[in-house]
Structure formats: C-alpha cells, structure tokens
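User: I'm putting together notes for a lab meeting next week and I want to include a structural view of one of the chains we've been expressing. I don't have a solved structure, so I'd like a prediction I can at least talk through. The sequence is below, exactly as it appears in our construct file.
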Amino acid sequence: MSKFGVDESDRDFNSAYVIHVAFAGDERQRTAAARLEEAVGLANAIDLVVRKAEVATISNPRPATLIGAGRVEALRAALDAEPRRPGLVIIDAALTPVQHRNLEKELDAKVLDRTALILEIFGERARTAEGRLQVDLAHLTYQKSRLVRSWTHLERQRGGRGFLGGPGERQIESDRRAIENQIDKLRERLDQVRRTRTLQREKRKKAPHPVVALVGYTNAGKSTLFNRLSNSDVVARDQLFATLDPTMRAVDLPSGQRVILSDTVGFISDLPTQLVAAFRATLEEVNEADLILHVRDAAHEDSDAQRNAVISVLSQLGVDASDNRPVIEVLNKLDLLDEDDRFALLASSRIVRADAPMTIEEPARIAISAVSGEGIGVLCDLIDAVLTVDRETYAVMIGSGEGAPIAWLHSHGDVKSETEQDGRVLMTVRLSEKTAGQFRKFFPLLPLETDRSPSSRQIA
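Assistant: Thanks for the context. Below is the predicted structure for the 460-residue chain, given as structure tokens.
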C-alpha cells in the first residue's frame, strides 16, 4: 500500500500532471504559457511523462491549498478518471509546507512544487562528489522547511527531577534536530571543498592563463559552445540542466593565447534559494573569472526574460553593474533563426560591439551558432582582444643555447618575432604586466624591455 492508502501498482509514478500557477497582475516578462512550457521541460528532464499540462490563474492565493477548491476538485476528478492514475502532480509555484501537505491529501497523490522538482533533477544529475554534497545540502534545507507537526507518539512526560523533568519532545523536533546535524556536517564538508577551491584558484592566479567563465540560462547552449571551443565532449543535450557539475579545460585561441574555460551550471528563473546557497562554492568560479561569456538562446521567445533571470542570479553572487570585469553576451543558436531575424541580429550585435562598456548590463554582443560554428572565429578574436588589451610588447636578447626562457616565453606570451644573430636570439613578445613580472622573477639576468619600436631598438 502507498502512503496515500492505495496499492502502488494502481499508480503510475512515471507520469505526472503539471500545473503552472499564474498570479493575476503578475507583471513579469514571461507569459504563463512559456512558464508552463518550461515546467513541462523540467518534468521531461527526469523522464516523466506529462499526461496533462495547464495554467491555473488565481487572483487570491488560498492559504490552505494555494489554488481554489474548485480547481483542486477538478484535478482530483481528472486523476481518478485516468486508466492508470498518475502518481505525481507538479505545482509550478512555491508551496508552503501546509499547502504541500493539504494538496497531497486532497489530490491523493505525491505533490512536487517548483523547488522540489528542480532538486529532483539536480539529485539525479549530479556526478561529482562536490555536486552530490551541494544537492544533499539543498535537499535537507528544503526538507527541514517541509516538516509538519503530524508526529505525536513521542509526546509524553519524562520522569526525573528539575533538570531532567518536563515534557518530552515531539517526533517533529527529533527529526528537525537530526536534519540540522546532517546539515552542519554537510556544511563542514562543503567548507573544505571551498577551501580547496580557493587554493586551486590561488594557484591559477600564479599561472599566466586567464579564466573565461561561461554562464547563462539552462539549455542556452553553454556546453555545446564549451565543446566547440575546447574540442571536448562534455554532455550537451537539448534538455534543461543537462550540465550540473563544473568543467574546466585549457583552450588555445588562434593567436596562441591560452585560457582556462569554465562551464558552469545553468541558471533558471525563480531559482530556489536553497540551490543558490548550496551551489555558491561552484558559482564562485564566476567571481574569479577574468572574462564572463553570457551565453543566450537568441532563438527563444523569452530570451530577454531569460537574460534578466541570469543577471538577477549573478547579482546575488556579487557580479553586478559595479563589477569591472568585461562581459561578452554570446547570442547563440543563430542557425535556428529565419533569414530576416538572423540578419537583424548580426547587424545589431556588430553595432553594440563597437563601443560597448562591456558590463553585465551593457555587454559587448556577438551572434554565433555553437552547432554550425558560425561566428566562432570572430568570438575567439574578441576574447583574445579583450584579454590582451593590457599587454605590452617587450624585446629580450637570449643566448641561443638557453632553451628555458625561450620555451617559457612561447608558452606564456604571444611571440611576435624571433630572429637569431651572433649566437643570440632576439625575441619580441606581448606580455601582460603580471606575466612580465613573472619572467623577470624567473630569469633576473635577462633584460626585458618595453619595445615600442621593434625595428629600430637595439638590445645589448
């Protein structure tokens, strides 16, 4: 028998009803139909078969069930009428613990709200130890808020005097304490992960390679672009939250500049606060990036609303209009646009790119197709230009037998010329201020001089 008093064999827990709750007067950009479509996509992401999908518009949310009694009765009747009763009802909204409990009782079905559904997806997709820790923490934080006072079998008086006397505890209090203990342990383990990541970032700071972070709405094409740029095979599907665990690869741009490319978890509108908090350790990679690529699905009807959702989450991480790191908005899926829209997008992105402040609110824009490769070369050139804008050209004379400094400059800089004369090699190379400082530290006997006129400069 199931928890609902019905033999589980009479229920299909692989199928679900999806109900998006639209609030009257909601002035957000996205339509109720688009939000319903996204909720159905979330259900499909964990292989649920959606038997029914509808929008429930309400003007006065009910404290007991959120949606009205008539709607609840209609849903119950529709579930009962199915040949094999769906075991799940997904309410695309945030439910209070009381609303959650009451709906499960009234509908005689397992109910998931938006937060629970996203947590289910994350729980199924997380692969790394860190990802699983983050999901477990988010699950427990959510579960703690769902505890309702329905257990009473421990409600009894304890014996003893004074310091041992008094009423016993309810089961709910025992459960809450157990969950809090688990949460504390998970936070300690995640703190260790955060410390490890901090050490790794410190090591990367000592290296000359800048970090480029890919961010964007879920299913915008980040992983496809990551694979295109890095020649990798990261999982990339036409599916919400196909990528959860962060991935990093070294990528050589056409100029020879090496960068560390970081693929991050996709964002979504109304991202549960538990997940923002739990995945902060992963998303901190964005805070340490030298350049942010905001990947957008330019072919999606809600592209602008998705952009705003990403900016909202980034602001929670400290990436806002006051941030001075450059941002490139990558308008992806050019291949899915018709000819007119495609031409307009290419033209507008060129205009914006010309003099953009390159902030999160006013980024440089470039239109591409990560699938076909269109625009990738221009994107790489732009990334290169942004990351090397502070570079100086230096000249240095090195003995032809000194392989170490020559190899170092080739791997850490952009070598413009290399000529041999009288047993010595004259190199002109573009280096950032940091990299030039590293060269002087590692090879103090080799004079590295700013070369403003390479053709006429003589170095003894």
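A couple of points you could mention at the meeting. The two ends are 89 Å apart (CA to CA). Residues 1-6, 149-168, 454-460 have pLDDT under 50 and may be disordered.

User: Perfect, that's what I needed.
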